[in-house]
Each structure stands twice: as structure tokens, then as C-alpha cells.
């Protein structure tokens, strides 16, 4: 295990570049989460899990084992005792592992690494709250799926799985989220971490399907700082990581067209998210993890 | 582009800025980075097209900037057209040489101002508007050189002299530096035909790239009344011709003045472009010293409204006999005894004769010469007048013909070409002379048509021209011909004087014959004995005669003494009294060249190496250089380039 640099302990927020030398995702997540203020995330369901909820009448055809015989003994009525779920929350963390997520500028952490670190940290927080967390990664398809569980083993599994992932293949956001939605039975929370470099209609289609499955959705739109501000003083020969195409553009043209396109894209996604009541958070890969996490957790607190 | 030059070409050093701009352009070019990028979805075809457009725009911007700098430098270098001398007027280093036609025709008054004065006014404008560092020179007709023009108003002073551009030619060639483009010759004249002809000659000898500006001051619809050919018709009447050019003459008063007394006045009505001969009565009791006839009418040109006359007088004619002096002595004797007017008669060997001898003679007899001397040939090459009588006797053995045709001094080739077609004839039996008549002016008074006593043994057969006297066999003995320079020649087919070829000098035919051919020669020549032109050299009739004469003007003031000068010049028109020592005085009329009153103009448009600029055009060229499109064009281009440059700027989008 690599030694923890001193500046990490003193810094109020750990910047992503400080974590680049730490290859161990588990350690990264631990550093991030333990550095945060404890108890900031107050679960609205805490203390109520496995608790009695109410009685209802037994319905014919139901299993006789569900009848509360004690209540029958007291009241001579066949009642069924209802309980809260065993866990507070079913959360799915969906991480985009398309080739575009492998982009990193100026020796920064790549979007994929950032997404994995952010996802692992969030999973850590949730599992510590005994929420069930699952992880899925997708590109054109779902390539990894761990169903939600609230055990410590699940956290190990999540971190281990994310560690083994490598960004590749083009994105098909709609198709991947479609497939994901089909497998969901319970309402829960979906945290989608992606650069959203796909057709807006495709993205909206996938999100809509998830929303249909009664999922609360947080979309973390992860962008490299370069992707938000292209240097105009340079002429570029761009090579597309997903399609392999190349194009030569001067900085001004590239910046102008890219920013225009990105703004349009952002507006389309934002509009759809507002309609679908989805939280959209833009996160830059040079933003400290804690800061990004706090923003997400605050959103959650507002939500409930 | 060869047509464009620059006043300040040193500014082109600044073109190195163009190099700096190019270097800066390439230095500022952004570096190229190869990058794996997450998505090119936002860089669609428009971006590529836009990128290409931007590249073209940048190239255009560079070219525009270079053009702006080049154009600005060109403007600072002050371009002008080579073939537009008016551009040179704005050259700060330009030397402008001006010549104003000084002849009397420039006194033509239009709008109360003479043409000459207009020329001077233009010169003042020129002096005022020329760049401060350029210099304006004006031709001084008296000192025959260009002087720097002073900044003061100058009155036009015409000269009575005929047009003399030869001195201008010499001065122009010596004073103007043709190698630089900073010299400009400006000619102000009314451009009468002779002026235009001579200007043409001048411009032809100037170097090819040199262009002069001709400013024609030719009057619009010129008109003039003139008086000419005034002379005494007889002792009681004076005769003259009055012409009305361009306009009708109505009630023109013509009178004659002798001394201070007006003799007769007459009124004239003449139609447009017609001339009328008129006579005025004079009362010449006693000695008539001459007088003047005045046409009293208002017209633009006044100098030709006065004409002088003086009584004709018998005048001596100087005879020069060139050739063997011994053989020619009989000719001199014959002239001396025949008439007193042949005085002096000078005998000169062809090798001893001088240019002055030839030039001062009224009659030149070339007889018994062994060849043509250099002096004679040079004289014949230079002399083109019609005032002299030239008598040339050929040698029957053809020696003179041969000599005349050989070498560089081929006199006869210059005189006529077909003499060589003739041949020498030697006769065993002599021929007599046959006169064509005895009543014509030439042969009037001769007793017989055939002179039996004359025997001709040898002659040159085939003399050219109109035969005046025949030999017995019909061959020509004497003929008259004009050479290609329109000089009159009398050609004899055999020598006169002492010779083996004939016995002419031993006969009674000889003296009247010699006298008559000299008279005929004088009559053929167009000289007028007692009327000369102002400014033209007048041959001194007393040259080499050891006689001196006093010359008095009309106020009886002594103005000069004629001694041994070959010629004198009279500057003022009028009547002059010549009083030779011990002889009766006589009178000369000195008049202004009548050609000056001929309103015949030829525009200098077609002249080579010249630009014709009317006074208005010259003034507008001086006043506003901006009027020329050539001046505007670079500024228009510069403006367009700056606009283009601004349009090419990239605007920051909000």
C-alpha cells in the first residue's frame, strides 16, 4: 500500500490529482469518505428498518403463513402484519465505461477513474448507512452488474469490480439504461455517472425508462476541464476515442463549435431532466471528490 | 507599370516591413497539438468548412495587411505617370523650364489680355502652386539661358524679332538634365504653324523618354485686320494691301503719314477673309524720306496695322567670282564697265574663298574652278536662302562635274542629280549662240537672235533645267534650274572668261551677256533691297568697301555706323536713313515679320514626346492634384483594403 501523503491529511478537500498516485480504489474511497464530516448524510429511514408498519386484512389466496396468529388470538380476525423493508434504500450506481470516459487532459485523472472513485465513495457512504448498493457499468451494453446489497462484502465486491474495469467501446446510453431498467423491480435510487456523449434523445429515452421504474435518478455529468474550455491558441488534430475519426481544427473554430454543441446538448439534457424530475449535477474532473459528494448528498437531503 | 515612376523611391526601403509582417505572421501561427479526444460529435462538417474559411481569411488578412503596407509605402514614395508630365509638376525635386513664345503674334489680345500676358499669368500660377522645393526657370530671350523665376509679377514683353528657336534648342540641350525624371519643359505659345514645326523638331531631338508640356494659347475664333505690301507705286501714290481675316471690316480708316503730316485718309469696307489693294495719294515735293500707312481700327493684333514705305533706290550688288583669277579677270572687267551697281566685284580662287565672302555676296559666279573647295561645300550645305544669284559655268572636259560629284563635298549632287547623264563635247567646227528672243526681260536690247561672232568649240552637253540660251546645234548653252533646296541656279555649259572652249570674251556679246545674266540672277532672287525684317541680320552693303555709313532712326538720331561689319541687326521697326560717306543718303524700312500676323495655327497635339495641356487643364492640374483619377485610385484602393481588413477581423461572440 502506498504511503498517504501528508498534504492529504491537512487538506480540507482532497483534489483528484492528489489521489492519482493512489491506485487502490478502496483506499481512495476510504480517504474520501473518512475525510468528510461524519453524519452529514442523515438517512431519513434510519431506525425504522425491520419495524412494524400496519395491519391489513388477510386476502384469500395469500399464504397462510403471513397471518398474524397472535392478533387472531386476541381479536379473532385474520390480519396480516406488514413490515418496512429490511433496508432503507436500494441504490444503483451506473458508471459509463465507454471509450470517451478514458479522456484525460494535462495529466489529470481520467473521467473513468474519477467516476469509479466517486462511485466507490458513494457506495461506501451508503453501505455504512446500511443501504443496499449495486453497481452497473455500461457502454453499448451492460458489462457489469452487481445487485444491491447492504453488506460489507458487497462494498468489497463493488470496489473489486470497478478496479478491473477499463474504458472501451462506444456509448449507447439509451440501450444500456433500457436494459438496466428492465431488471429493476423495486423503487430505488439510480446514480448515473457519465459524460453523456450520446444522442440527447437516446439519453432521455434511457432516463425516462428508469424513471418509469420509479427510480430516483441523479445524473452526474462528468467532464474534463478541457472539455469545458478548449484552448484557442492551439491548432488541434483531434482523434475520436470512440469512432477513431480525426479532424484538424484551429483552436478558435474548435472552441466555438464545441462549446456551442455542448451548450445545446446540455440544454436538451437539462430540459429533459427537469421534466423527468431528475437531478443533474455537472462535475468536473478537477473538482475535489468530497465537494462533489457533498453536492450529491445535499441533493438527496433535499429530495427526502 | 513601366509608365509609373516615383518621386521619392527611397521610401521603398520601408518595404522591409513586409518581411517583418510575414515573419510575425508565421511566428504567431498557433502550434499544432495531436490529441485523443472524447467525442468529435460537435465538430460536424460546418466546423471543418469554418476552419477552412478561417484559414483562407487569415491568408487574406495577411495579404491585405501586406497590400496596405505596400500601398502606403507607394503613396509615400509619391507615384506619378511617366507619360503624364503634369504629375511631374508635383515632384518636390522637379525643375520646371518654361519658354514663352516672344513673337508678336503673342500680342493678340483676347478679353483685354494679350496671349503673352496670359502665359505670364500662368507662369505666376505655376510658380505659386509648384511644391516649395521645386524650381521654376524661365527662358531669358536676351541672354539665351534659363533664369530662376523671381516671385514677382512680370509683364509680357514681346520681341519684334522673328521666331528664333535655335537658341532655345541649344539651351535646352545644354541646361536640362534629361537623364533624370526631375526636369520638365513647358512651352507656352499660340502655336502658329512655324512654332509648331520648330517645336516638333526640338522634341524630336530630345531623348525619347523626355516629355514636354505644350500649353497652347491659341485664340478661339481668331480674327485680325492687317496691312501689308506697302510700297510706293509711283512718286504720288503709295500702295498696300488690307486684309480682313476672320471678320468683316467695316469703315476701317486707312491713312498715310509722312513725317508728322497725314496725307490722305480713306475708309474701307472689306468682307470677311478678303484682301483689298488700295492706293493713297502722297504729295512728294522735294526729297521723300519715306513714311507709314496706318490702318486705324480696333483689332486684337495691332502691330500689323502700321506699315512703312521708303523710296526705292538703286543699290550696289556685291559680285563674287570664284575660280581661276586670271581667267575670270575678264568677267570682273566686263561687270565693272557694264554698270556701277556691280560693286564691288571680288575675284577669289576656290581655295582662298571664305565663308564670309560667299555669305556677303549678292551674286556668286563659279567659273573655271578645278574642283569644289571645302569652304564652298560647307557654305552650300549651310545656306538655304533664296537671296543670292548663283551662276555656275561647267567645264566642258567634265572635271568640274566630276569634282562636284565626288567625295563628301558633292556639291552638284546637292544641286541637281542628272548632270552626270551629260557628256563633254569637243567640236571641230565652232557653234554660234542662238537667243530665243530679243524682247523678253532677259534678252531685250540684243540686236540679233543669232550672234555670229561667238564661236563655241567645246561644251558640256546635257545641262539640266529650262534652257535660256541655245547653241547653233540646239544644245543648251545656258539654263535655269532650282535645286532641291529651292535655290536658283543659272548653269552655263561652257566656261566664260578666258578659255579655249569659246571666244566669248573676245566678242562684243560678252559684256552685255555677263551684265544681263547678273541682272537676271538678281531678279530671280527674292531679296528686297530696301525692306528688311526686325531682328534679322542685314547684310552690310559697305562690307569690305572701305566706305562707312551712318544709320539714323526716324527721329534723326544716330543709332549705329556701318563699317566693316558683315551684317547688322535692327531691333525696332521703322524707317532708317543710311548716309554713306560722300554719297547721297537713302532709306530702309524695317518691318516686323509679316508671318506673325497670319493667324494660322497648328495644334501640338500630334507632336512626339509632348503632352498638350490647355491653360485650364494646366491650372486644374496645379490646383487640384486630386482631380486626377490616378491620384484618387491608390486612396480608393487603400480605403477598400482597410475596410477589407476590418471585415476580416474576428469578432468576439457574446
Label the structural class of chain A: alpha/beta
The CATH architecture classification of the largest domain in chain A is 3-Layer(aba) Sandwich
Main sheet: strand order of chain A: 5-4-3-6-7-10
Question: Helicity range of the residues of chain A?
Answer: 40-55%
Do you know the CATH architecture of the largest domain in chain B? 3-Layer(aba) Sandwich
Please specify the SSE layout and strand pairing:
The complex is a heterodimer of chains A (304) and B (654).
Chain A lengths: L5 H5 L5 H4 L5 H10 L17 E6 L11 H7 L3 E5 L6 E7 L14 H18 L3 E7 L3 E8 L2 H12 L9 H10 L5 E7 L5 H13 L2 E9 L1 H4 L5 E7 L5 E5 H26 L2 E6 L4 H15 L1
Parallel strand pairs in A: 3-4, 3-6, 6-7, 7-10
Antiparallel strand pairs in A: 1-2, 4-5, 8-9
Chain B lengths: L3 E3 L9 H12 L3 E7 L7 H32 L2 E3 L3 H4 L6 E6 L8 E2 L2 E2 H15 L5 E6 L4 E4 L17 H10 L7 E7 L3 H13 L6 E5 L7 E9 L4 E9 L3 E10 L2 E10 L3 E8 L9 E6 L9 E4 L7 E6 L2 H14 L3 E7 L6 H6 L2 E4 L7 H9 L6 E5 L5 H7 L5 H5 L7 E12 L15 E12 L4 E6 L4 E7 L5 E5 L17 H15 L6 E3 L3 E3 L9 E4 L5 E5 L4 E3 L4 E7 L5 E6 L18 E3 L2 H9 L5 H20 L6
Parallel strand pairs in B: 4-7, 4-9, 9-10, 10-34, 18-19, 18-20, 20-21, 21-26, 27-33
Antiparallel strand pairs in B: 1-3, 5-6, 7-8, 11-12, 12-15, 13-14, 13-16, 16-17, 22-23, 22-24, 24-25, 25-26, 28-31, 29-30, 29-32, 32-33
Helix pairs in contact in B: 1-2, 2-14, 4-13, 7-12
Amino acid at each position: 500500500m502506498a504511503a498517504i501523503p501528508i498534504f492529504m491529511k491537512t487538506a480540507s478537500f482532497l483534489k483528484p490529482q492528489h489521489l492519482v498516485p493512489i491506485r487502490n480504489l478502496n483506499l481512495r474511497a476510504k480517504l474520501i469518505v473518512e475525510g468528510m464530516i461524519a453524519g452529514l448524510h442523515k438517512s431519513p429511514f434510519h431506525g425504522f428498518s425491520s419495524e412494524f408498519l400496519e395491519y391489513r386484512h388477510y386476502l384469500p389466496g395469500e399464504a397462510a403463513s403471513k397471518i398474524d396468529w397472535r392478533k387472531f388470538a386476541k381479536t379473532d380476525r385474520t390480519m396480516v402484519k406488514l413490515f418496512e423493508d429490511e433496508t432503507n434504500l436500494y441504490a444503483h450506481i451506473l458508471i459509463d465505461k465507454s471509450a470517451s470516459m478514458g479522456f484525460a487532459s494535462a495529466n489529470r485523472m481520467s473521467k473513468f477513474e474519477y467516476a469509479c472513485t466517486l462511485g466507490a465513495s458513494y457506495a461506501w457512504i451508503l453501505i455504512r448507512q446500511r443501504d443496499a448498493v449495486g453497481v452497473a457499468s455500461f457502454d453499448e451494453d451492460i458489462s457489469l452488474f452487481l445487485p444491491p446489497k447492504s453488506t460489507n462484502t458487497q462494498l468489497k465486491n463493488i470496489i473489486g469490480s470497478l478496479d478491473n474495469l477499463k474504458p472501451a467501446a462506444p456509448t449507447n446510453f439509451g440501450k444500456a439504461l433500457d436494459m438496466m431498467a428492465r431488471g429493476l423491480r423495486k423503487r430505488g435510487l439510480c446514480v448515473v455517472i457519465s459524460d453523456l456523449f450520446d444522442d440527447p434523445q437516446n439519453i432521455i429515452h434511457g432516463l425516462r425508462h428508469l424513471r418509469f421504474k420509479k427510480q430516483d435518478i441523479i445524473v452526474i455529468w462528468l467532464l474534463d476541464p478541457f472539455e469545458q474550455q478548449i484552448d484557442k491558441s492551439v491548432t488541434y488534430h483531434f482523434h475520436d476515442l470512440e469512432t477513431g475519426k480525426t479532424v484538424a481544427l484551429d483552436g478558435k473554430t474548435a472552441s466555438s463549435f464545441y462549446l456551442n454543441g455542448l451548450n445545446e446538448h446540455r440544454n436538451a439534457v437539462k430540459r429533459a431532466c427537469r421534466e423527468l424530475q431528475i437531478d443533474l449535477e455537472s462535475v468536473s474532473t478537477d473538482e475535489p471528490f468530497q465537494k462533489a459528494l457533498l453536492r450529491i448528498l445535499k441533493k438527496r437531503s433535499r429530495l427526502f | 507599370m513601366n509608365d509609373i515612376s516615383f518621386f521619392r523611391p527611397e521610401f521603398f526601403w520601408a518595404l522591409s516591413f513586409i518581411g517583418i509582417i510575414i515573419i510575425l505572421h508565421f511566428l504567431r501561427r498557433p502550434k499544432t497539438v495531436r490529441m485523443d479526444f472524447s467525442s468529435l460529435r460537435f465538430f460536424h462538417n460546418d466546423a471543418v468548412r469554418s476552419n477552412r474559411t478561417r484559414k483562407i481569411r487569415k491568408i487574406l488578412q495577411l495579404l491585405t495587411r501586406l497590400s496596405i503596407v505596400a500601398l502606403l509605402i507607394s503613396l509615400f514614395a509619391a507615384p506619378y505617370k511617366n507619360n503624364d508630365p503634369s504629375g511631374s509638376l508635383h515632384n518636390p525635386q522637379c525643375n520646371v523650364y518654361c519658354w514663352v513664345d516672344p513673337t508678336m503674334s503673342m500680342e493678340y489680345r483676347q478679353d483685354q489680355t494679350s496671349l503673352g500676358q496670359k502665359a505670364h499669368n500662368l507662369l505666376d500660377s505655376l510658380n505659386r502652386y509648384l511644391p516649395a522645393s521645386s524650381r521654376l526657370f524661365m527662358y531669358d530671350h536676351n541672354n539665351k539661358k534659363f533664369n530662376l523665376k523671381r516671385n514677382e509679377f512680370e509683364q509680357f514683353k514681346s520681341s519684334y524679332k522673328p521666331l528664333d528657336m535655335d537658341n532655345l534648342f541649344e539651351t535646352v540641350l545644354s541646361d536640362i538634365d534629361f537623364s533624370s525624371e526631375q526636369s520638365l519643359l513647358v512651352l507656352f505659345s499660340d502655336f502658329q504653324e512655324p512654332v509648331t514645326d520648330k517645336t516638333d523638331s526640338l522634341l524630336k531631338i530630345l531623348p525619347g523618354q523626355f516629355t514636354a508640356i505644350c500649353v497652347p494659347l491659341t485664340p478661339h475664333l481668331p480674327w485680325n485686320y492687317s496691312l501689308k505690301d506697302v510700297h510706293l507705286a509711283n512718286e504720288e501714290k503709295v500702295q498696300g494691301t488690307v486684309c480682313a481675316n476672320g471678320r468683316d471690316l467695316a469703315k476701317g480708316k486707312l491713312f498715310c503719314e509722312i513725317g508728322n503730316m497725314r496725307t490722305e485718309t480713306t475708309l474701307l469696307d472689306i468682307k470677311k477673309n478678303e484682301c483689298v489693294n488700295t492706293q493713297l495719294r502722297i504729295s512728294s515735293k522735294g526729297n521723300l524720306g519715306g513714311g507709314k500707312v496706318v490702318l486705324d481700327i480696333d483689332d486684337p493684333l495691332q502691330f500689323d496695322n502700321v506699315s512703312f514705305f521708303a523710296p526705292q533706290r538703286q543699290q550696289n550688288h556685291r559680285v563674287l567670282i570664284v575660280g581661276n583669277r586670271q581667267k575670270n579677270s575678264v568677267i570682273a572687267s566686263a561687270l565693272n564697265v557694264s554698270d556701277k551697281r556691280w560693286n564691288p566685284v571680288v575675284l577669289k580662287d576656290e581655295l582662298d574663298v571664305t565663308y564670309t565672302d560667299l555669305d556677303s555676296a549678292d551674286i556668286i559666279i563659279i567659273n573655271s574652278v578645278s574642283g569644289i573647295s571645302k569652304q564652298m561645300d560647307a557654305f552650300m550645305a549651310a545656306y538655304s536662302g533664296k537671296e543670292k544669284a548663283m551662276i555656275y559655268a561647267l567645264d566642258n572636259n567634265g572635271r568640274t562635274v566630276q569634282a562636284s560629284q565626288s567625295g563628301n563635298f558633292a556639291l552638284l549632287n546637292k544641286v541637281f542629280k542628272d548632270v552626270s547623264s551629260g557628256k563633254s563635247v569637243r567640236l571641230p567646227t565652232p557653234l554660234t549662240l542662238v537667243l530665243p528672243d530679243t524682247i523678253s526681260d532677259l534678252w531685250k536690247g540684243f540686236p540679233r537672235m543669232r550672234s555670229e561672232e561667238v564661236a563655241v568649240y567645246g561644251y558640256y552637253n546635257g545641262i539640266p533645267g529650262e534652257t535660256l540660251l541655245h547653241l547653233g546645234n540646239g544644245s543648251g548653252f545656258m539654263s535655269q534650274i532650282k535645286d532641291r533646296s529651292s535655290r536658283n541656279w543659272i548653269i552655263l555649259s561652257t566656261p566664260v572668261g578666258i578659255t579655249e572652249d569659246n571666244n566669248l570674251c573676245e566678242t562684243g556679246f560678252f559684256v552685255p551677256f555677263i551684265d544681263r545674266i547678273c541682272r537676271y540672277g538678281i531678279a530671280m532672287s527674292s531679296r528686297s533691297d530696301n525692306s528688311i525684317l526686325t531682328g534679322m541680320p542685314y547684310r552690310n552693303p559697305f562690307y569690305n568697301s572701305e566706305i562707312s555709313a551712318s544709320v539714323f532712326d526716324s527721329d534723326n538720331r544716330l543709332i549705329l555706323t556701318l563699317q566693316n561689319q558683315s551684317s547688322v541687326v535692327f531691333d525696332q521697326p521703322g524707317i532708317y536713313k543710311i548716309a554713306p560717306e560722300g554719297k547721297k543718303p537713302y532709306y530702309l524700312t524695317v518691318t516686323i515679320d509679316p508671318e506673325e500676323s497670319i493667324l494660322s495655327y497648328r495644334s501640338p497635339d500630334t507632336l512626339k514626346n509632348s503632352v498638350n495641356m490647355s491653360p485650364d487643364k494646366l491650372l486644374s492640374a496645379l490646383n487640384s492634384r486630386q482631380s486626377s483619377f490616378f491620384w484618387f485610385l491608390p486612396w480608393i484602393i487603400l480605403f477598400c483594403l482597410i475596410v477589407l481588413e476590418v471585415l476580416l477581423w474576428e469578432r468576439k461572440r457574446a
